Amino acid sequence: MAANPTDLLIPFHLGGGAVRGRLVRLGPAVEAILAGHGYPQPVGLLLAETLALAAALAGGLKFDGIFTLQAQGDGAVSLVMADVASGGDLRGYARFDAVKLAAVAADAAPVPGLLGGGYLAFTVDQGPKTDRYQGIVELGGATLSACAETYFRQSEQIDTRVKLACRPAADGRGWAAAALTVQRMPADIPGAPILVGEEAEDGWRRAALLMETATAAEMLSPDLGGEALLHRLFHAELLQVSAPRPLAARCRCSRDRVARTLRSFARAEIEDLRDDTGRVIVTCEFCRTAHSFTPADLERVYMP
């Protein structure tokens, strides 16, 4: 997969492994995912943040499949979701109500203002022969980062800090998004450094405070490399940076996948979907690709 220097996940460790973190930077990838949807800016910002957060959370997991992050609510944005394949492919989309969105105050906090009440779900799907893992937390914070921190504190008992930044397309520049996370690692994991309680607490506190000093401009700057940013923030914390992992906008939809989906419906239901020419057109919600099936194509789809 070709990597763009601004579409990357960079894992790192601090304090000899006592704290781990991930830096995600997205440029062309988020631009490509938002293209063609015509999202109003508040919706685009929310989706861009969701993409960056999903990539950062997926980067902390060992899996072979798909990690999905989705928020569902009763507000102007009823659904925002992003998924990340273990190879680094990203996709996402959002559903919104234009009437409700027009009534949202410009300075409203993203979660209560746009999503309203609902939940944030984390899902790992490694295929039909494995159990799906899912974690859920209420949309109780003001931001997606706050909701993610609550999930890890309540469900995983792992101290976690998350910082998100996003910039809409303007002045000749495209969309950009970034995520920075640090997590305090349990002392009983293999290879964890031997620290007394006070040392561990001080190390975690410093990591969290240093992360908070990162500005949105630094996180999104095309002139400041990701490793340079991490060095600027954590150079005094025994920083160890792992090899960057490429990320890319790539949808998993295909004509064969759509055909299999159509085949899962009763033929009579499909007949109701025909247009005036007799075709059935299925448009992917993620990439907006239109898959067209003529009457002859449908015969082949339902052929025994």
The general outline is: globular
Please trace the helix and strand order, writing H or E for each element: EEHHEEEHHEEHEEHHHEEEHHEEH
> How much beta, percentage-wise?
25-35%
Structural class determined from secondary elements: alpha+beta
* Poorly predicted segments: none
H/I helix tally: 11
Profile the largest sheet: 6 strands, antiparallel
> How much is the radius of gyration in Å?
21 Å
- N-to-C terminal Cα separation, in Å? 37 Å
Summed over residues and divided by their number, the pLDDT gives a mean of 91
- Strand segment tally: 14
Q: Percent helix among the residues? A: 25-40%
Detailed description of the structure:
By secondary structure, this protein is of the alpha+beta class. The protein is built from eleven helices and 14 strands. The protein has helices at 28-34, 41-58, 98-102, 110-115, 144-156, 197-212, 216-220, 226-234, 255-263, 267-271, 295-301; strands at residues 8-14, 19-26, 66-73, 77-85, 89-96, 118-125, 133-138, 160-167, 176-184, 240-241, 245-246, 248-249, 280-283, 290-293.
Could you write a compact summary of the structure shown?
The protein has helices at 28-34, 41-58, 98-102, 110-115, 144-156, 197-212, 216-220, 226-234, 255-263, 267-271, 295-301, and strands at 8-14, 19-26, 66-73, 77-85, 89-96, 118-125, 133-138, 160-167, 176-184, 240-241, 245-246, 248-249, 280-283, 290-293.
What is the fold's blueprint, element by element?
Blueprint: E1 8-14, E2 19-26, H1 28-34, H2 41-58, E3 66-73, E4 77-85, E5 89-96, H3 98-102, H4 110-115, E6 118-125, E7 133-138, H5 144-156, E8 160-167, E9 176-184, H6 197-212, H7 216-220, H8 226-234, E10 240-241, E11 245-246, E12 248-249, H9 255-263, H10 267-271, E13 280-283, E14 290-293, H11 295-301
Parallel strand pairs: 5-12
Antiparallel strand pairs: 1-2, 1-10, 1-11, 2-9, 3-4, 3-6, 4-5, 6-7, 8-9, 13-14
